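Morning. Coffee machine broken again, so started the prediction first thing and wrote up yesterday's gels while waiting. Chain of 424 residues, entered below exactly as on the submission form.
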Amino acid sequence: MKILNKKFTLPTSFYPAILLMGVMALGACQDEEGMGMGMPVIERVRNTDPSTADSSFTSASLGSTLAIIGTNLKGTEQVFLNDYPLGINPTYVTNTSVIVTVSDSVPTVATNPDVPNTLRLVTGSGEAIYEFQTLPPAPQVQQVKNQYVRSGEELTLYGRYFYFVDTVYFPGQDAFVTSGFETNSTGTRLTVTVPENLDFSETQMVSVVTRSGASSTNRNTQIYAGKGMIADFDTNGVLEWPWNWGWGISGEMIKPSQPGIESLEGNFGGMNQAFPANYGWNNDKVINLAAWSGGQPFPTSPEAEYDPTSPAANFDIRFELAINTEESIEGLIVQIWYPSANGELSYDIPLTEVIKATDGSWHTFSTNLTRLTNGSSRFETYADFLAGGADGVKQLRILIINSSSSDISAVVGVDNIRVVRAVN
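Came back before lunch.
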């Protein structure tokens, strides 16, 4: 077989066509590589939901995912919020949008009151700056200072992120406040006047709404709904004031004021002494509510709420306590004690866990019934609490213990000892 070799030659007229195609391809590559190389421009910021493509906003809270919309963004090297780098994923960068997430480390007014409130996008060609406010997380209510409040009185909440407060909601359809708030610079305290129209038929909860969102509600965000009172030191029932109620403090210490402490309403039980060190005892630091008659001092109505078969975990023992002293209260403990049929149950609460000021102002103490224990013994149902001790006497004790090595001089007031249905 004979193999023929023949040289193939392109027509002379074809070379300009190839050259033109090469130039066009090179130009296309240069155009593609050059996208985003002009000065970047931020037109607006929105979230990433496609249904909100036309939206725009100038603030977002920590944890948000943002879509930065503009031009010449393809070369984005970094995005800063309040001068904090967010980090860039090239997958989410185009010439007209950049998607970033606001990390929890971005400074806000919660950590730095002087933050610049700007979003800054940097490319190889320059940077774009956009006024943008980074908001702290949604508010958290950790403590209602005094839950025994009525319309027109001031309520103080302790927690976190009380910035840009919009509304505080109270129990009731139209019970809310939208102005007159007082907050501290760290966003940990909020004071508001309790509105009219309180209605506890459905809830006892207080919630706070800010520009970042709403606080969650739980048994620590409740106010007093007017039910479950055992001892208000004014209203006679099975227990009679000021003498026929049990033992401990003298009836002379049940009155509307003590040095540095004024009552919330009517009388309260007072203690004024040097509380003895090292768990020392005296009867003047004890309020032992005892129904010697055998009557039932503990709440049983409304029946639907105080159903004896309900789990004990649904109920809290609560009371208000005020202390006036210039000494440290480290080592002072309030003990809740109950003699059940299965032995003495108790629970200790250090005053420093609840008390924010030792100026005689009132604070609500609260503990779940199931926290009263003795080894493995505890309440299982509300009926266990109603039963009283093995001798049939119904008792409940509130006393102040000093666990420190030195006496602590103080004036203490206790009022409105109650059991509330904290969970429906």
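Residues 1-36 have pLDDT under 50 and may be disordered. Going to sketch it on the whiteboard this afternoon.
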